[in-house]
Known about the structure:
Helix content: over 70%
Number of helices: 11
Distance between the termini: 9 Å
Structural class: mainly alpha
Largest sheet: none
Amino acid sequence: MFALLLALGSSLAYGCADFFGGLGARKAHALRTVMIAAPASLAVELLLWPLLGASFHPATLGWGTASGVASAAAFVLLYRTLAIGPMNVLSPVTALVSAALPVGVGLLQGEHLAVAGILGLPLALVAVVLVSTGPGVGAARPSRAALLLAFGSGAAIAGQLIFLHQAPTDSGVAPLIIGRAVSSTITLAAAGLLHRELGSERPAYAMSAAAGALDSVANLLFLLAARSGDLAVVAVIVALYPAGTVLLACGVTAERIHRGQLVGLGTAAVAVSLLAVT
């Protein structure tokens, strides 16, 4: 139950981070937003170091680096996917893959589910798709290249979660610090190489920093949840993060929640209840 609550907190934090990051990216190039969000995220994790400790074992360095590379790859692939859209079709693909792969890894590693969990897990995967699906699905068909990018983005997000889960349980926040340092270095280097294409618009500093801080909180809650629960359950709950984005957009920017997303939110509530019983 504690792991489930942590996973729900992580999902909510990821959803809020995406909301603020999306608002920030409307005012300037996405890489400019990342240039603010990445240092803010790393600063939060460094502040957590004295509180939660960090042990930099060789295994921690390896898995943390792998998670950082996967995180940077996820950003690049997702950004490219957004560029060629339609995202209302591709976003569910990305979310489903990011949930399904960790579930498969968890089950292969010997995790077992009770009957309620066996029912709740696929229901949660359905909820992930419904909640992350935008209005007008089917109006435009994505190209094969766009679908491959969406799969790649979801696989990279899943890889980040799986690699963090593989880090030693006594390593504290070290995997997060290493991963964030690696991903920040890669994305900032990319921003430096592409500086001529970034435009002159200034990013929304407060929203970008908030997105980075919330992303760090989400990563921390996921790591704690995965250490105290099953990866298969934790990953699929975390993948419900579009629900947080949808609800925040409804409350702050008055965006409408369409019927499919409402069904998804209800399905998610049922799925989480079943997983809680597990």
